[in-house]
Amino acid sequence: MKRKPPPKVDLTELSGERNSPYVRNRKLFEWLGDDEARASLYATLSAAGKPCLPFPSRAIRNMEDKDCKREDLRSGHETVFLLAHAEDIKHVLANREGRFSNEPYRALGTGTFMLALDDVDLRRKQIAAARRAFPTSEEEVLKLCAFAIDAAQVMSLRGPKFDLAEFSEQVALRFCSALFGFAVKDYGRIEAAMRAAYNGLNYQILGRHFTTEPLALPTAERLMGELLGRSALLIDEYQLDRDDLPEGLDKMGAGLGSFVPVMKKLARMPGELNGEELAVLVVGAMAGVVGNVQASVCIAVDAIFRANKLNEASRAAWLDNGDELQLWITGALRLNPPVAFLPRRAQADIKNLPSGLVLKAGAECILCMGAATRQALGQISDLRQLREAEKDGLIFGLVEGEFPQGGPHSCIGADLARPLVREIVRHILRLPGLAEQLDPEDASVIRLEKRWGFGCVRYPLIYRSDRRRKQQSLNVSMRIKAPVGQNASALRALIRIGAPRIERALREARHVHFAWFEFIDNDRRLVLHTVYDGDFGAYIQHFALVVGDMFDLLFQHIEDAPQMPVAKFPGEFVDLIRRYNMAPAMGYFFSAYPKSDTAQIMRDERFRP
Ligand code: HEM
Question: Which residue among 30, 43, 278, 534 sits deepest, i.e. has the most Cβ atoms within 10 Å of its Cβ?
Fold first, then answer.
């Protein structure tokens, strides 16, 4: 369906005279949820010299909040402050006087992970342990990226149509599983916990102020809790120096021979952390990876399509040039940061923000990261402007080195995330014939679908998968006519007698690798299995014309036979075969030589019979 034009931003719609709190709340939510409207909101606020936008939130502070005092309990719409002034945002993130709290994060999981902690000493212990355990060599990180991409593409890129949001999520999950040292059997648990954690995180940061999802946090807590238990158990096992962990991961085969997973390193060097704190560190860090990497990849690829960069003749060189690719990715993420909003609460009256904005103690703030990251950027198609994007800006928070002294909660995984995002984007952009899918109704491009302006839920793309794997399977299963015993015997006789003819037809076709018949379900069904190259329709039509009479004989004993003679009605035959063709389970199909077709192989005399 054609994309709706972005909602028009008109700040007067947020005045109390014109609209009720609900309407104002919903209006703002619409703007924040749309990339173009959000950019226009930030530009409008900046042009109007407005550093902040107070709005009536749907979220009510409740007694469950561990730090909430009885007198703080309020009903109706608490006013929450959207901060959109770049210097104010940096000031809050720097938190020099320690007057901004990360308390809003405490509603997620155990609330004891560094991101939710204001206690400097507790945070320092966690950061020290994490820094000791995270891989530092780019070579090792790139090996993990290659392993994760290779593992995820087996299923996610098995057909021409795929969802980039799903693929990038699966790569990030495979990356985390190997990085932290989980067993293959833990995959489903990690996947469920990370999806719930990311949804819970986005709900806690932004969603709860505009919409009501009572299960978002309890579900995240439950699934993260289960993963916490498993991580704690594994860390205990790793402390026993077991070399057979992680189970099921063939590290050598995956080219990760010498890699020591994070949980093993944490187990060996726990510092001042106990088993539970180490497990909280693992689950907490992972919760910040999957959704963020997924969003980063989708946002970058969408921007590259919008900039029409893929059609450039220099595409291959550009893709090989890591720096230039990185520039485009960073530029795209600064225009639309994957972490588009961050929560903070003022713990005291604040009167020294650069814009002059004053906040009362207890004020809940949402930092509009895009307003800050965009500050130095124009349109992404201008390479010259891209030079400005050599730096991450605030994509990963107030990262030390880029900002004097950095910020207490800046991302400690940026050196893992950057190469991972870059390698996934490079892998995708290298896919032959890559394009955005078109809507069958009006042929409009199906664009990236986001939730609440930052979670990326769907991005349908298409590519020439037949250029990556030539072969595909045919599994035509048809019911044998009653009396089954008699007809099955007749079919067996036909196959025995007709085999030489079929053999010659298959060989001369030069696009069939393997073919065989199978009786299943106590002879009630006959299945024709083949592995062939090229287009389904052309392939089936060829056999209708060449051995149509053989099929006519076979269909005497099969229910729902097509119009015959098959050679005279090849179209109906193709439709019937398509109808009864069963795709491999989950679409998974292995080929030892995906890029070789029958003709190529047959040209090599070593393979000729
Ligand atoms: C594209 C991927 C990523 C993005 C965009 C991202 C972004 C961020 C941002 C903006 C923050 C600051 C949050 C705040 O101040 O409220 C943060 C914190 C954090 N990130 Fe990342 N991150 C990414 C990947 C990772 C990875 C791969 C890891 C580790 C494996 C990681 C671990 C952390 C941790 C532990 C914190 C909390 C730091 C603290 O509280 O001291 N992140 N991340």
Answer: 278
